[in-house]
Amino acid sequence: MKPSLLRSKTLALLLAGVVSLSAAGCAEAPTQAPTQADDKKVTLLYTFKTGSLDPNNGSTPLRAGITETLVKLGSDLSLEGWLAEKWEATNETTWVFTIREGVTFHDGTKADAAAVKASFERGIAASEALAGALKIESMEAAGQTLTIKTTEPYPALPSELVNPSASVISVQAEQKMGKEAFNNAPVGTGPFKVKKFEPNVEVQLERYDGYWAGTPKLKEASFKFNEDANVRALALQSNEADIVYNLPAESIDAIKSNKSLRIESVPGLRAHYILYNYQRPLLQDLKVRQAMNYLLDRESIAKDIMLGNAVPANGPFNSKLPFGSKDPADGADLAKAKALLADAGYTAGADGKLLKDGKPLALELITYKGRPELPLIAQMLQSDAAKAGITVTIKTVENVDAYLKDNKDWDMATYSNLTAPRGDGGYFLNSAFTPEGSLNASKISITRLSDMIKQLNATSDTAGRVKLTQEAVSVINQEVPHSYGVYPNIIVGVNNRIEGWTPGGEEYYMLTHTMDVK
Amino acid sequence: MLIVRKRALQLLIVLLLLSVATFTLMKLASGDPVKTILQADELLVTAADEERLRAELGFDRPLIVQYGQWMWKLLQLDLGKSYVKGKPVWQELMERLPATLQLTAGGMAVLLLISVPLGIAAARYPGRWPDLLSRALALVGAAVPGFWLGLMLVYLFAFKLQLLPSMGKGSLTQIILPSFTLGFPLAAVYARLLRAGLLQSLSHDYIRAARGRGLPEWRVVSLHAFRAALLPVVTVFGMGIGSLLGGAVVVETLFSWPGLGSMAVEAIFSRDYPVIQGYVLLTGVFAVTINLLVDLSYSIIDPRIRYEKGVSL
């Protein structure tokens, strides 16, 4: 026997494996980190991947600075012109948009009213959702003027045009390239054009020199996707990415302690809230809903569950929005909750649990893991409700929308929605409080509120819409169909070499022409 | 070629049963893709819009009718279109398959590079350090969850040492970490399997005879004993490769690897039935085909095994 020979062969094999793995690693690794200051390249890492860049069926082309919309949300989240300089309603179903002069698509063709019209026609054919949201009956293009007629009075049209799916693209380019090639490299008007798209992994971009608002400062950019929050955080710390969205709260301290990185935590347009089932007798009692509202500890949710990256909510809309409530958020108040429940006729039994007509006040709370903080909010509410003598049982479901719709016996649910996705309250008020609304699983119907929504749907001037939305919020806060918990912040990790850029609360405009590197 | 014909028939039965089971299970779970189709980016839609689309997609028809329609299309070799993306399912599967094949190949390479040398060394020196090392690795491999191993590798190689990229697909370096995450846990187990097989075959008379003839030890082990020890390893390997091809969901998510596994998870979350069905059928075909290849390979590894009529060992 020659054990030494075998030993050396085995070791050689093992070593060969290890060496070949690490040698391959060393060979190409340096090209991965775009840390040189002069190459003007930025890597942005976002959560949700996409397998297609079809601009009418996804947000990535807009987020990556490839396409733009007629109207956008400004830094204060109010509507402002983008490809459209101005717009006005000439009657209740007619809108006239003036398209900005000097805008060209990446292929050099002019983005005039006729091009925008063709783009919308393409979008409506490509996306059922967009067709339903724009409600366009007909369009006329003359020079830079686009006249849109809607199928019904539709004051929310400018706000709906903020949607990334309403991006303006060159239909002419699509006809030349073919649909499939176009959906991998759409031709828009944005500061960046697609260099290479690796579906579900990365979009490589290069600047568009003919950009209408000035030459983009970056030469190149990479828009990558990764759904794992920990890997995203590590990518920022290893300089593999310069901007990382939706960081896990627990990684924030480590990132803050790194002098080359910073955290940007901006208020978003989302609200986490508790939904009450209006079909359940116990919750038809306003006092019970008000009592639950006082048991929801918003300060603690913001501080302990969201680790300071959220703001206590005082209504459906972030108070930073022009139509958000300016009142302070309700604080947790056990005494007030108990008094309300006593008023409602509940008395404590021998075990401290509340009873009315011999029946206990026991409620089922539905939650889901899609947003990890929601089950924690459910647990906190359960424990605070127990202090008032209310028994709350928590049920975790996989698909909350389907569960709430298909089942009738739930009492409350933790829920989360973008309440003003396009800087207007009309979407949420219509979806959550009208009988036909898609977010109104418990068929909430409040006459006063319904009348206001009808009026809002017929009002096109901005000041009038703001006033009506504020009045609707005030009714919501009196009737308590929902208890709003917090407005979660958007947490973005940024390398300090990035200049001329801050994330917006709308989570839309990520790569911009003003973004620069040191 | 009797076995091939027999297996082709089995394949059809397996696929039929698979499709019925998946179809029924998916429909029993709550939810449908209507929300995903209409609610993209919180567009304003009404419950009536949802009902209309539900009817358009045929979700209001009896389950058996829905299944029948799907099957009728399948017989015409049409897997349908994704509800969510509107793309033909076949195209979607073919777009994702290469990434999964690459990752599977990477995982297999890691598996072989670790398990074969380690298994041989452990069998050759039972109770000594190569054996102890393989035992410790097998324990770690079986105990460590894939997501944790993947994260630790990213932490070490991408963050601390900055040697390898943490994600993406395109360059050779990007496949190393996901391949290792995928291959290592299996490699540890295979090394033990190989060790057991080798120890058994090394005790056989023909090995003693080979040694008696004065053959060098490396030839005895790597040619004679190794071949005999391969049978159980190949069986488990066949089962393993089937599941690898099905897509390693955790690994694909961690490393942004655009393969079949992550596609299936997306489809399940959005209840994109045609994509789920297409995925199940494709992985079913893989699993049965690979098992067939494994069976056929037995007669090459061990010539005593023959698949002729009435003569099988």
Give the radius of gyration of chain A.
27 Å
Strand content of chain A: 15-25%
Major beta sheet summary of chain B: none
Helix-strand pattern of chain B, N to C? Answer: HHHHHHHHHHHHH
Key terms for this structure?
heterodimer, A: 518 residues, alpha+beta, 12-stranded mixed sheet, 4-stranded antiparallel sheet, 17 helices, globular, disordered N terminus, B: 74% helix
Describe the structure.
The complex is a heterodimer of chains A (518) and B (313). Chain A has 17 helices and 23 strands. By secondary structure, chain A is an alpha+beta fold. In chain A, the strands form five sheets. In chain A, strands 1, 8, 9, 10, 11, 12, 13, 14, 18, 19, 20 and 21 form a twelve-stranded mixed β-sheet that branches. Chain A has a four-stranded antiparallel β-sheet with strand order 4-5-7-6, with helices on one face. In chain A, strands 15-16-17 form a three-stranded antiparallel β-sheet, with no helix packed on it. In chain A, strand 15 and strand 16 form a beta hairpin. Chain A is globular, with a radius of gyration of 27 Å. By secondary structure, chain B is mainly α. Chain B is globular, with a radius of gyration of 24 Å. The mean pLDDT of chain B is 83. At the A-B interface, helix 1, helix 4, helix 8, helix 14 and helix 15 of A face helix 2, helix 3, helix 5, helix 7 and helix 8 of B.
In short:
With 518 residues, chain A is an alpha+beta fold. Chain A is built from 17 helices and 23 strands.
Give the helices and strands, then pairings:
The complex is a heterodimer of chains A (518) and B (313).
Chain A: H1 3-28, E1 41-46, H2 60-63, E2 71-73, E3 79-81, E4 84-91, E5 94-99, H3 113-126, H4 128-134, E6 136-142, E7 145-150, H5 157-160, H6 171-177, H7 179-184, E8 192-198, E9 202-207, E10 220-225, H8 229-237, E11 243-245, H9 252-256, E12 261-267, E13 270-276, H10 286-295, H11 298-305, E14 310-312, H12 334-343, E15 347-348, E16 354-356, E17 359-360, E18 362-368, H13 373-387, E19 391-397, H14 400-406, E20 412-418, H15 426-433, H16 447-457, H17 462-479, E21 482-495, E22 498-499, E23 516-517
Parallel strand pairs in A: 1-10, 1-11, 18-19, 18-20
Antiparallel strand pairs in A: 2-3, 4-5, 5-7, 6-7, 8-9, 9-10, 11-21, 12-21, 13-20, 13-21, 14-21, 15-16, 16-17, 22-23
Helix pairs in contact in A: 3-4, 10-12, 15-16, 16-17
Chain B: H1 2-28, H2 34-38, H3 47-56, H4 63-75, H5 89-124, H6 129-143, H7 146-160, H8 173-202, H9 205-212, H10 217-245, H11 249-254, H12 260-269, H13 273-301
Helix pairs in contact in B: 1-13, 5-6, 5-8, 5-10, 5-13, 6-8, 7-8, 8-10, 10-13, 12-13
